[in-house]
Design a protein that fits this description.
The protein has about 425 residues and is of the alpha/beta class. The chain has twelve helices and 19 strands. Helix content is about 30%, strand content about 20%. Helix 7 (about 205-210) runs parallel beside helix 8 (about 230-240) and helix 11 packs parallel to helix 12 (about 340-365). The protein binds S-adenosyl-L-homocysteine, iron/sulfur cluster (SF4) and FE3-S4 cluster.
Length: about 425
């Protein structure tokens, strides 16, 4: 049987799709070269905002229509929506629905019909399974699963279950193996990597262990939660030369009152103090963030507080979202929901402000020397390649396909709000 997986959502899902691929290959399945050739089509899905779910449901119904000409085709849904919507998905004609802790039984499930397996297994870490990484340059390595934080807007703890950490030795082996296949970069994944603890070492300790692996040149991680960013971790980041000068540190809001109703566990002042510490210990660190516009009860003044912090901190990049109520989360039931037009208007203001800030952060790099890890060749111009700097900025420069996977020294000549043009 030939399978095809279409992946949505965060990098956890990208890594899980690699895990599923490894499980299916071991069971004798083969990857399909195209959708037309596939005997099984699987959607690995995201529930974080309503829009993410709607997009997938549209795609699923398209693919289900293939069954008219190919009745033996199986269409399945896995991941966070499987967990959240469960049986209602079977009513849409989907053949199987498998949740995030049950991927090991996928080979059997695919052969059946109307199968649903969404039981949580709070200890599931897929031991002994080292997935084959698909990227030619970076290995996405899951270091923990689940989340215990219950930020009041967020569905993730309900669809991913409780937080648990993989034993460091397994992460170490997976990293070494990735290095031995030629990958120079790893990205460690978890909903809150700062709270990693396998009973033996914490996240600062894990970084120090991985930093000793010779074949690896760059270490990245997502996501860091501000409430768990310790001084020791900052020290470990600055002391480990392979840990890149970048942190993704979701702020969510610049108002301490909103942060409290979000159940984030830190104030705006604390967030600000972390930025100061990071910049002091790691000069030139790039800081990126996530921010939500129009959280229930957010006043115009509180929204302006967020804009003020954005101006003050000058994030290198910010992922801005408008609040999306998720059924079952605390915030969906809060009074004082903000009208859709206001949410949208605030979102647009945020995006515009950040675009200007991003542009000035990128322009500040003009004239500087950077190291670029070449990841791709430009589709428009085959004599141009693109990659990332250590501080997570996309850079383009002249080069050829054979340079993919190599590190190049370059000088920044020009910049847009998203790309460094280098020489
Ligand atoms: N674990 C990560 C984030 C996971 S979700 C962390 O704690 O930072 C990625 C981002 O989606 C969040 O940071 C948040 O900004 C956004 N998000 C999550 N739920 C949302 C919702 N209901 N509406 C709008 N944005 C949301
Ligand atoms: Fe969601 Fe908060 Fe957990 Fe991040 S830390 S996944 S925002 S509950
Ligand atoms: Fe989405 Fe699930 Fe990730 S809800 S953001 S794919 S953990």
């Amino acid at each position: 049987m030939r399978f095809h997986i279409e992946t949505y959502g965060c990098q956890m899902n990208v890594a899980d799709s690699e895990l599923i691929t490894t499980i299916l290959l071991r069971a004798g399945f083969e990857p399909a070269k195209s959708l037309d050739e596939a005997d099984v089509i699987m959607f690995n899905t995201c529930s974080v905002r309503a829009h993410a779910e709607e997009r997938v449901l549209g795609r699923v119904s398209n693919e289900l229509s293939r069954k008219r000409n190919k009745p033996e085709l199986k269409v399945g849904l896995v991941g966070c929506m499987a967990q959240r919507m469960g049986k209602s998905l079977l009513d849409r004609g989907i053949d199987f629905v498998v949740g995030v802790d049950q991927y090991q039984i996928l080979p059997d499930v695919i052969m059946g019909r109307d199968q649903i397996h969404t039981e949580f297994d709070q200890t599931q870490l897929y031991p002994g399974l080292i997935p084959t990484h698909h990227s030619k340059t970076c290995a996405y390595i899951t270091i923990m699963r689940g989340c215990n934080n219950f930020c009041s807007y967020c569905i993730v703890p309900f669809v991913r279950g409780r937080e648990r950490s993989r034993p460091w030795q397994e992460i170490f082996n997976e990293t070494r193996e990735a290095g031995s296949t030629g990958l120079k970069e790893i990205t460690l994944l978890g909903q809150n990597v700062n709270s990693y603890h396998d009973g033996i070492i914490d996240f600062a300790g894990l970084l120090r262990k991985l930093n000793s692996i010779e074949s690896i040149e760059r270490i990245r991680f997502v996501t860091s939660h501000p409430k768990d960013l310790s001084d020791d971790l900052i020290e470990s980041m600055s002391g480990c030369e392979k840990v890149c000068e970048h942190i993704h540190l979701p702020m969510q809001s610049g108002s301490s009152r909103i942060l409290q109703v979000m159940n984030r566990g830190y104030s705006s002042e604390h967030y600000y103090s972390l930025i100061t510490k990071l910049r002091k210990s790691i000069p030139n660190i790039a800081i990126t963030t996530d921010i939500i516009a129009g959280f229930p009860s957010e006043t115009e003044a509180e929204f302006n507080d967020t804009l003020a912090v954005m101006r003050d901190v000058e994030f290198d990049y910010a992922f801005c979202f408008k609040f999306s109520p998720r059924e079952g989360t605390a915030a969906a039931g809060f009074d004082n929901q903000i009208q859709e037009e206001v949410r949208l208007e605030r979102l647009q203001k945020m995006i515009e402000l950040q675009r200007q800030i991003t542009l000035s952060r990128f322009q500040a790099k003009i004239g500087k020397n950077v190291e670029v890890y070449i990841e791709d060749v430009s589709r428009k111009n085959r004599s141009q390649v693109s990659g990332k700097t250590r501080d997570f900025k996309i850079a383009v420069l002249s080069g050829t396909e054979s340079e993919i996977g190599t590190l190049k020294q370059a000088k920044v000549k020009d910049a847009t709000a998203g790309t460094l043009i280098c020489e």
